[in-house]
């Protein structure tokens, strides 16, 4: 089985990936933007012990072509979609960014899962 975890470098995502690997659930790919809302070094550190056991795909869910390419090339059987722009205060300050990432990004992810 091939499993794609979006947001896989975050706290919850990295623990999800660790569990999947522990359970020998299959081949795992992590898609993450490593944006600066949380320190990207912390996210990279979250993957430190497992980076050699996963396929790391760095990019933005807001990039529909990138997301489609990931799905076409990795061909996941399952997608665990955990990627999101977090933070209440900044969502009020930058609502369009949150719409782009959390709504449009989720749409791009879902649309890319549909067979052509």
Structure keywords:
16% strand; 116 residues; alpha/beta
Largest sheet: 4 strands, parallel
Report the span from N to C terminus.
20 Å
Query: Fraction of residues in helices?
Result: 40-55%
Number of helical elements: 5
Biggest sheet strand order reads 3-2-1-4
Strand portion, in percent?
15-25%
Q: Radius of gyration from the CA trace?
A: 14 Å
Shape descriptor reads globular
Mean pLDDT: 95
What series of H and E elements makes up the topology?
A: EHEHEHEHH
Low-confidence residue ranges: none
Number of strands: 4
Q: Structural class per helix/strand content?
A: alpha/beta
Please give a structural write-up.
This protein is globular. Strands 3-2-1-4 form a 4-stranded parallel beta sheet, sandwiched between helices. The chain is of the alpha/beta class and 116 residues long.
């Amino acid at each position: 089985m091939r499993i794609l975890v979006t947001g896989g470098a975050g706290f919850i995502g990295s623990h999800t990936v660790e569990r999947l690997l522990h359970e020998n659930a299959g081949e795992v790919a992590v898609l993450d933007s490593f944006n600066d809302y949380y320190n990207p070094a912390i996210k990279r550190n979250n993957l430190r012990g497992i980076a050699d056991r996963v396929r790391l795909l760095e990019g933005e869910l807001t990039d529909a072509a990138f997301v489609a390419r990931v799905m076409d090339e990795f061909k996941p059987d399952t997608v665990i979609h955990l990627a999101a722009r977090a933070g209440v205060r900044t969502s009020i300050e930058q609502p369009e960014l949150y719409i782009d990432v959390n709504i449009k990004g989720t749409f791009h992810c879902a649309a890319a899962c549909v067979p052509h």
